[in-house]
Amino acid sequence: MKSNRNCSGPSRRDALKFGSVAVASAAFGPALAHKAHGSDHTTNDPAVIFVWLPGGPPHQDTFDMKPDAPAEYRGAFSPIQTNVPGIQICEHLPQLAKVTDKYSIIRSIAHTFADHGGGHKRFLTGRDPLQPAGFVNDTPMVGSMAAELWKNKRAAVPNYINVCDGGRQQIDTFSFGSAYLGPTSHPFTVYGDPADAKFEVRGLSPVAGAETKLGDRVSLLNQLDRPLNGTDLTNGARAIEPLRNRALDLVTKDSARAAFDLSKESVKLRERYGRHRYGQRALMARRLVEHGASWVTVVMENATPPGETMKQNHSYNWDSHAVNCHIFDDTQYKLGFLDQAISALIEDLYTRGLNKRVLLVVTGEFGRTPKVEYSTGTQTKVKQPGRDHWPQAQSILVSGACKTGLVVGSTTSRAEVPKDRPMTPNDLWATVFQHLHIDYNGTAFLDAGGRPMPMLPYGEPIRELV
């Protein structure tokens, strides 16, 4: 699933295109019938940390184990008890087993799109995509919809942020696109490995030597934004000005750079999260919501620590087909990093009292096939186990600002389909939107044809969690 897209910077034509779309978006105000809940950051502002595991982790090898199923279904791992009686998870998640009282597991969310592209689009937009493959959204990603409503919110950092691997920062790599909302609703993307000593956040400092010219360039842009003739009937130029001012704040003030600076954390805490990209991204997410970000997406794919090469016969992301990797070797390796990072994040949120306003969601686009399949690995050239795509069931971890220590829903004895409380991704997003104080039923956006589109076509908050 790893993309080889060209990751060079934007061209002059791209910049002009971005500007025209931004002006149009700001001018016509696509959000309808939404009452804002305040534009200034306060300590009570709700926020979301969304951990995205692209490729689809195996639910029956992590949070929905079936030890009594036949061997070809239950896999190679054994369950362990957690600190909540009656809840078991994978033996390779020992740290998460110690804090199960601080999170809940949803086991009965399902959809029908088995392709990665279709699965990403279906899960992340709350709608069936027009095309079952490909990663370009025809409707906005849920984070972009929320970001559109936060356009006037001011904080030390951008309201909507995405952290991911270098080479994976293009908006369509994971179906993070905002479709008809335009690029002003895209996340501020931070790419690279924050565990690497050479890591830096691009876009938070003026280009070397440009500081003295910045004022002149802003003045020129203001002149170009004026209407060519008469008054600005659509208020487009006036609407784009706050967006530019916020961008200037990011590159001219130290507050944003400080929020991203992990060196301000203690060595002990950084070690607790783990000196790897999973752990340091999770720590960065905590710092960002603490500094006012409302939505931080954390992409966790390749787990390789700095200075090491990816292990042979392992998959870059969580796409554990037998041709890609030996699923049990690969999953065990990734779970070690995930267990450390997510358990540390949960503990940190609770220690700092952020659990009262931050909702943590950890998921991929779907689960894996109940029955283990065997194919010849492209690297090993020998037959090995794997699991294919399976949108009919998956497991999702939620923590923080929700009821915890619970298992919501169940699957059949072989982890095939939901048995109790069948739900869709829309129910998850209804829960998230409610947490964010967003009236998703009463909010719509104008699509490319000028038709009002509701944030979600259906979905109800998960009653066990709220």
Number of structurally distinct domains:
1
- Note the beta-strand portion: 15-25%
- Major sheet size, sense and barrel closure: 8 strands, mixed
Envelope shape: globular
User: How many strands appear in the DSSP assignment?
Assistant: 19
Radius of gyration: 22 Å
- In the predicted model, the low-confidence regions spanning at least 5 consecutive residues are 3-29, 34-43, 231-239
Summed up, the helix count is 12
The helix content, as a percent range, equals 25-40%
Q: For the residues shown, what is the average pLDDT?
A: 87
State the CATH architecture. 3-Layer(aba) Sandwich
In whole angstroms, the N-to-C terminal distance is 35 Å
Report the CATH topology name.
Answer: Alkaline Phosphatase, subunit A
Overall structural class, as computed from helix and strand content, comes to alpha/beta
Q: Determine and state the CATH class.
A: Alpha Beta
How are the strands of the biggest sheet laid out side by side?
A: 7-6-8-2-9-14-5-15
